[in-house]
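Request:
Um, any thoughts?
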Amino acid sequence: MRSHSGFDVVAFNQKEVAAYNYVFRFYYPSLCQFTGRLIGRDFAEDLVEELFLRLWSSEKTFNNEEHLKAFLYHSIKNASLDFLKTTKRAVDRNTLFTEEHSFNEADYLAGIIRSEVLIELYQAIAELPTEKGRIIKMTYLDGKSNQETAAELGISIQTVKNQKLRGLALLKNKLPDGIYAFIFLYPFVK
């Protein structure tokens, strides 16, 4: 994964709001996706927000971004497993989940890899010109049709198609082939 020039470990350790906001915006989507596969999307966002609130209140410091990332994924995995253990509905959900997925280390690592790919993808989309990025996100990541996207943005379907093609061309130059191909597979691995 490429390094993220927006991260400043000293500023983050000193609880500077801008550094904290950067980390939150950067890791929130992938952590939600990662934990959503364990506990369901409805609860994932709350759990990730709670993790960031606890992180802000804690005295923990980090050596670098890799240290922080490892902490975030480890913490959200543990929080997700605790959530599954402590809720009444979790008993049935946990049984069903373990029967269907038999959660193990390989699943955990695959989830982290999937989340890391999403980080790369979201970052590359964020670097696109605004309208192209919004259209790529809506049509590929949110799963909306060209018609739905055009209606929501108040533009023609042809404009959506043109912007999508231009956005994909820009992404192809920004992303490694494997991550670029992931954008087309994303609806199937959500």
Remarks:
- The longest helix spans residues 17-39.
- DSSP finds ten helices and no strands in the chain.
